[in-house]
Amino acid sequence: MSFDPVERPDGCDVPEKQARRAQARELPGLQRWTREAVAEWFDMPFANLLFQAQSLHRKHFDPNQVQISRLVSIKTGGCPEDCGYCSQSAHHKTGIKPTKLMTLAEVVEAARAAKATGTQRLCLGAAWRSPRARDLDLVCEMIAAVKAEGLEACVTLGMLDEAQAERLAAAGLDYYNHNIDTSREYYSLVASTRTMDDRLSTLARVRGAGVKVCSGGIIGMGESRDDRIGMLMLLANLPEPPESVPINALMRVSGTPLAGASSIDGIEFVRTVAVARILMPRSVVRLSAGREHMSDELQALCFFAGANSIFVGEQLLTTPNPSQERDASLLGRLGIQPLSSNQPSSPAPSGSA
Ligand code: SAM
Ligand code: DTB
Ligand code: SF4
Prior knowledge:
This protein is α/β, with parallel strands linked by helices. Helices cover 39% and strands 13% of the residues.
C-alpha cells in the first residue's frame, strides 16, 4: 500500500499554521518556537501528532533506516559533579568503582570490535567535569584511532573551553555530546555543581570549533510536560539546532537521588520523540538510554514518531542495553536497515524517500 506523506488522513484536524511552522523552521533563523506552539503539538491527538512527525521524517530521512552508535566508557565513575540521575557521580553511593582512563590500545580494540558488528559511530564517554590537558592529549589520539578504523567519532567529556574544543576539532572529531538534560527551570533540581548556562556555553564552543553538536536530555526524572516542552524548545531554538538529539529515558540507578522517580508513561515518551522530530526535522533523533526497559512495540512507535538512531551493545556506560539478538530481531521484524558504516549520518536530500 502506498503512503503519501503530504496528504492528510480524513479527520486529521492539524491546524495549517502548525504545519507551516514546522516547515518554516527548516529555514534556519526564520522562526523561533514559542512555548504555545510546542504545547499545541504535545496536546494534539496522538494519531495526528504521529502522522505529522512521520510525514516530516520522510521528507528528510529514509524512514526504514537507523543510525547505529556504540558507547565506550573510557573513564568510569568518581565524577565531581552531582547530577542526580548519574551512577558515576562521586556524590552518590552507587557501587560504581572508579577506573583510570583507558589506554589507546583498549580503545583501538573496542573500535575494531564495534566496526565488525556494523556500528557507524563510536562514542567515548568520560566521567569528568572537564578534561585535563594530559588526558585531552590521549583522547585526541583515541579520536584519530577511531577514525582510522573507518568509524565516526563522538566524545563526551564534560565542559570544554574554546582551546579544548579547537583541539578536538583538529583531531578530527565528528560529534561532541553534551546534553542539556532538562528545562532551564528544572535544571537546578537535577544538578547543583553546574548550571544550564555552563552547558550552553560548552555547546557554543563546540559549534564555534566546527564540531557537530549532539545534545538532548533525559525523560522521566520527575519533570513536568512543561519541562519537556522547555527542553525541546531550548534545543530547537539554538542558533543552529543540534545535528544529533539523544532522548534518554531515565535508567534508575540505586543510590542516586532519582532512584525512586516514577517511570515515564510510554505514550508521553513517544509524544516527546515526535515533538523533537517536528521541532528539529533535519536532526537525527536518538532513542538512547532506557531501551532495555521498553517493549518492542514501544520502540517501534518511537521509530514511527521519528527516532532514527540507537545505541547498540549490551552496556551503555554503566547500565544495561538490549542484546544484539534482541535488536537484530526487532529491526528485522520492522524492516529497518542499519545505516552502513561507510555512509555519513547526514539527512537524505529533501523530498527523497
Ligand atoms: N560527564 C559528561 C557529561 O555529563 O556531559 C559525559 C558523560 S554523561 C554520563 C552523558 C549523559 O548521559 C548525561 O548528560 C545524561 O544525559 C546521560 N545519562 C547519564 N546517566 C543517565 C541515566 N541514569 N539515565 C539516562 N541517561 C543518563
Ligand atoms: C546520551 O545522551 N546517552 C548516552 C550518551 N549520550 C553518552 C549515555 C547514557 C548513559 C546511561 C546511563 C549509564 O549507562 O550509566
Ligand atoms: Fe559526571 Fe556526566 Fe555523570 Fe554528571 S552525568 S555525574 S558530569 S559523568
